[in-house]
Amino acid sequence: MSLFTASGLIKEFRGLRATDHVSIAVESGEVHALIGPNGAGKSTLVNLISGMLPADAGQITLDGVELTGLPPHKRVRAGLSRCFQVTNLFRKASVRDNLRTAVQAHRGSSFRLLGTRNAEMEINAEAESIAAQVGLSHTLDHIAGSLPHGAQRQLDIALALAARPRLLLLDEPMAGMGPDESARVVELIDELRKHMAILLIEHDMDAVFKLADRISVLVYGKVLASGNVDSIRANPDVQAVYLGTGEPT
């Protein structure tokens, strides 16, 4: 059984079918990339998976647990965490305080009610551990909004990691980055795959081909093809609609 499955997902907006019986599976320890041209339905699909939008039909499961119909926070508790296209930070707070807040939120306790110094020390230690995991230990006391764009994206990923996810949804993590910043995020994702499965939505095809174990191609709300990197590279329909040679046969 796959770690994560989305089966037959349908979503319509005023009669327009944005996702049309979309099915996708992610295995444990896998980076599964979702690609497709603008307007293909990728953002809608991620919103359905994360619970930001309700599906009109279909089923979503994570490690055998039914997620369909659950609100986003309950999906997070079940092991699904998401990073958005636009960074979602407390921009005026320090990196340390951003991470402390995320850890505290997922522990379900208030700092005012921690009760013991040990509990607060544990939260601080976990925040510092996550910062080290994403390469931000040297920025812990920096204001989040003052970080370079690439470091802000790393912090956004770190906040998602505070939920200790089984499946991490990364929505265009390389967007707006230069080559050096993108390379650092590629290295980070390659390290994270050792600890969790990743569903990666990304337009940077060099990054996709470096990272993905499998790729699914979404076009007009439907999965056009799904397979390993070599099979997707060689698929003439994928070349037509995504790599710029025309229309699918």
UniProtKB/TrEMBL annotation:
The keyword Transport applies. Transmembrane segments: none annotated. It comes from the Bacteria. One of its GO terms (cellular component) is plasma membrane. CDD domains: ABC_Mj1267_LivG_branched. It holds the Pfam family BCA_ABC_TP_C. GO terms for molecular function: ATP binding; ATP hydrolysis activity. SUPFAM superfamilies: P-loop containing nucleoside triphosphate hydrolases (SSF52540). InterPro entries: AAA+_ATPase (IPR003593), ABC_AA/LPS_Transport (IPR051120), ABC_transporter-like_ATP-bd (IPR003439), BCA_ABC_TP_C (IPR032823), P-loop_NTPase (IPR027417). This is ABC transporter ATP-binding protein. It comes from Parazoarcus communis.
